[in-house]
């Protein structure tokens, strides 16, 4: 059963319970827009045309290694209402953890530090610095901020969660990479197509 925090139920994590998401590895990521609204672009004749919001999502994904130097990127695509990408964590490339802490992380930490119970609880459920969850949270936040700053009338939002798959072998890696590359041409059959 879900636990209560401040009178609200918390949905259990969708992450693999026995996996350290800050460990070296390749991850297939899917992040959807709220209610799968077509914020990012359109596909006609199997060709993707990105709107401004999609261009921002694309640019900010490419910038992830600038903020998280232990991350390498592989295949990536912005679809009309979601993004797919492969992120590779390589902690051998990891630098000083303080460089990986965003201003938003510091502000949130300061806001909740006065409440000991909240601090303990948040510490247990928050993504750890250097983890996949921290990287995705940072990316989603940056996209939301920039898209809404450029186009406040959109009221852009992501779904609260994201989907990940741990890529465990070369065969899976190649198959997922091809899936991402071919995603625009297969849009009509995509599970996220509306």
Number of strands: 8
Proportion of helical residues: 25-40%
Order of strands across the widest beta sheet? 6-7-3-8
Q: Class of the domain at 22-94 and 132-189, according to the CATH hierarchy?
A: Alpha Beta
Structural class determined from secondary elements: alpha+beta
How far do the termini sit from each other? 33 Å
Shape: globular
SS strand fraction: 15-25%
Largest sheet: 4 strands, antiparallel
What Rg is obtained from the alpha carbons, in whole angstroms?
Answer: 17 Å
Q: What oligomeric arrangement do these chains adopt?
A: single chain
- Annotated CATH homologous superfamily of the domain at 22-94 and 132-189: Transposase IS200-like
CATH architecture group name of the domain at 22-94 and 132-189: 2-Layer Sandwich
Number of helices: 6
Report the uncertain regions.
95-101, 105-109
Mean pLDDT, nearest integer?
82
Q: What series of H and E elements makes up the topology? A: EEEEEHHEEHHHEH
CATH topology of the domain at 22-94 and 132-189: Alpha-Beta Plaits
Structure description:
With 194 residues, this protein is α+β, with helices and mostly antiparallel strands. The chain has a domain at 22-94 and 132-189: Alpha-Beta Plaits (2-Layer Sandwich). Helix content is 35%, strand content 22%. The strands form three sheets. Strands 6-7-3-8 form a four-stranded antiparallel β-sheet, sandwiched between helices. Strand 1 and strand 2 (8-10) form a beta hairpin. Helix 1 runs antiparallel to helix 5 (132-150).
């Amino acid at each position: 059963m879900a636990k209560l925090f401040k009178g609200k139920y918390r949905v259990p994590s969708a992450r693999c319970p026995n996996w350290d998401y800050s460990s070296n590895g390749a991850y297939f990521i899917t992040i959807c827009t709220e209610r799968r609204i077509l914020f990012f672009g359109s596909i006609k004749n199997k060709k993707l045309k990105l709107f401004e919001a999609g261009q921002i999502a694309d640019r900010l994904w490419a910038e992830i290694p600038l903020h998280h130097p232990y991350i390498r990127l592989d295949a990536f695509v912005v679809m009309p209402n979601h993004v797919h990408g492969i992120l590779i964590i390589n902690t051998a490339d990891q630098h000083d953890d303080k460089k990986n802490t965003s201003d938003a992380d510091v502000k949130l930490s300061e806001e909740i530090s006065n409440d000991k119970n909240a601090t303990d609880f948040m510490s247990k459920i928050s993504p750890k610095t250097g983890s996949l969850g921290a990287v995705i949270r940072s990316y989603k936040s940056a996209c939301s901020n920039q898209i809404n700053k450029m186009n406040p009338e959109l009221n852009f939002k992501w779904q609260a969660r994201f989907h990940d798959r741990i890529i465990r072998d070369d065969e899976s890696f190649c198959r997922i990479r091809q899936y991402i590359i071919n995603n625009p041409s297969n849009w009509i059959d995509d599970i996220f197509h509306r």
